[in-house]
Amino acid sequence: MDKKAEITLADFEKIDIRVGTVVTAEAFPEARRPAIKVWVDFGEDIGELKTSAQITDLYRPESLIGRQVVAVVNFPSKQIGPIMSECLILGAVGAEGEIVLLQPERHSPNGLPIA
Q1: Domain locations along the chain
Q2: pLDDT, tens digit, for every residue of 34-87?
Q3: Checking CA distances to 22, which of 46, 54, 94, 110 falls within 20 to 30 Å?
Q4: Starting from the edge strand earliest in sequence, which strands make up the sheet with 48-53, in order?
C-alpha cells in the first residue's frame, strides 16, 4: 500500500481518537459485507457509541466483549443498513484485507485520548 498524502499537525489534531471497551457485540447479517455490530463504552464524557465493523475474518462477537479498542469518535454519524454508525474502530489491514484491532498495550480508562 502506498503512503498517503502528507497532512499537517493541525489536520491530525482534529481527529479525536479514544480508548473504549466493547460492551456489546452481535452478528450483523443484514450488512452487504460481513460485519459485526459493536457497542463501545468511551467513558462518562462521551458515553457508549455503536458501529459496524468489518472484522469477521479474525473476530467473533463473543470474543470482543470486554476488549479494549481504539476508535475515532468525532466522525459524523453514518447510516449503515439498519444501524447508525457513531465511531470508527481502528485496526491494521493485513495482506488479505483482514483487520487486526488496535488496542492499548495496558488497560486504560475508557475515554482516554490517543496522542
Answers
A1: 15-101
A2: 999 999 999 999 999 999 999 999 999 999 999 999 999 999 999 998 999 999
A3: 94
A4: 48-53, 36-41, 17-27, 68-72, 88-89
